[in-house]
Fold this protein.
Amino acid sequence: MKKIVLLCLLAAIICGSVFAQTAPPATTTIKGALGLSAGRIAVVSGDVTYYVRGLERFVGFIDGLKEGAQVSIEGYASTLAFEGQKGRFFYPITLTLNGKNYEVGSPTPFNMMSGRNGRFISPGFGTRKR
């Protein structure tokens, strides 16, 4: 009897953990001027410096995307500080520059940190010869 109760309890815990997924974080919109901080593209909005991930890929391809440009960026802000700096990483979805909207990221939050099947990609991931 104890084994059956324990087995049913274990099965209930496993089933419950499958459905106990957290909701995705809410999107945030930041507005400000593009600049460089700690060698990264950043936007200062209020008292917080947001290090915008992946925006360097579009420099030279989007007209007007340069230091000092006034932008509005929608995306996800991380809650972790960057290397002791006062700031946060920002994962952009859309960029508004000079009245034009650009899709610069994925609607899935933090997709830049995960690779195949959601596993973290280290710099040497998948480079080993077999």
Q: What stands out?
A: The first strand starts at residue 28 and ends at 37.
